[in-house]
Amino acid sequence: MAGRELLIRTLDLHRDFQMGHVTVHALDGVSLTVEEGEFLGVMGPSGSGKSTLLHLLGGLDRPTAGHIWVRGQDITALDENELAAYRRQEVGFVFQAFNLISTMTALQNVEFPMLFARVPPAQRRERARYLLETVGLTDRMGHKPTELSGGEQQRVAIARALANDPAIILADEPTGNLDSRTGAEVMEALARLNREQGRTIIVVSHDPAVVAFAGQCIHLLDGRIADAPTPP
Ligand SMILES: Nc1ncnc2c1ncn2[C@@H]1O[C@H](COP(=O)(O)OP(=O)(O)OP(=O)(O)O)[C@@H](O)[C@H]1O
Ligand SMILES: [Mg+2]
User: Which candidate, 77, 79, 199, 211, has a CA 20 to 30 Å from the CA of 181?
Assistant: First the structure.
């Protein structure tokens, strides 16, 4: 697609973890760019730094060295409050383990992030309903997580990730707890958000079938990008 804007740029990202006398170089110099509306797959073996990269991009963690610009703003220079605002406004997370609140219905789970964004109650409810409809859960709004299938729970999590209308969706092994057919449904839901709403989506997975949904793909190995993004 022509004329897409640069959304994310990282330069020489490093993330070290100190484990006693040993330093783990979880990320060892990652430079990449993500355009607005891109669907990027991140592959690589266990321990290669995929989750670490996603956490840095989402402002859940800070790099040991290097920079991350989002729309030209260096998020590594933000203070804690500014970083929290970045997470709330710009990023939606989808995790392997769904992470829904078990005592709340699907509707309440999707409303939850809007509480922190101080959205008025009636508007919260209306938007949560709309988001659950967009992921095909019109008939499941009053169900609690234990009353939903795995794929349905993950679609609730996707709706929740969209609550504050983020530009960026970060998904870490979103199909890891699902069988392949249900996983494909969840990936199709993400692909639709990308196609129809232009959301920028970054999906981490081991599974080539999952990453096949992405337009571009990077491979991490020992905290480094192993090759250039391959064309679809
Ligand atoms: N909080 C931490 N403290 C110490 N080491 C960590 C921490 N988080 C990650 N690591 C190490 O950093 C490396 C990269 O971890 P990361 O979780 O990013 O891998 P991954 O590619 O997501 O793996 P997986 O596919 O198993 O989820 C691993 O060697 C891991 O042990
Ligand atoms: Mg991981």
Answer: 199
Domain of residue 157, residue span: 37-62+79-225
Q: Does a structural domain hold residue 48? A: yes
Split into its structural domains, the chain has a count of: 1
Measured CA to CA, the distance from residue 187 to residue 174 in angstroms comes to 8
Q: For residue 51, what pLDDT is reported?
A: 96
For 185-221, write each residue's pLDDT tens digit: 889 989 999 999 999 999 999 888 888 888 899 999 9
For atom 8 of ligand 1, the residue with the nearest CA is 52
Q: Is the CB of 24 under 6 A from ligand 1?
A: yes
**CA–CA separation, 127 vs 215, rounded Å?**
29
Q: Which of 14, 21, 22, 24 to mutate to test the pocket of ligand 1 (most atoms within 8 A of CB)?
A: 24
Residues of the chain with pLDDT under 50: 1, 229-231
Structure letter (DSSP) for residue 157: H
- Cα of 53 vs centre of ligand 1, distance in Å, is 10
Atom of ligand 1 nearest to the CA of 55: 18
Rounded to the nearest angstrom, the distance between the alpha carbon of 55 and the centre of ligand 1 is: 11
- CATH number for the domain spanning 57: value is 3.40.50.300
Domain assignment present for residue 49? The answer is: yes
**How many CB atoms are located within 10 Å of the residue 102 CB?**
8
Q: Is the CB of 46 under 6 A from ligand 1?
A: yes
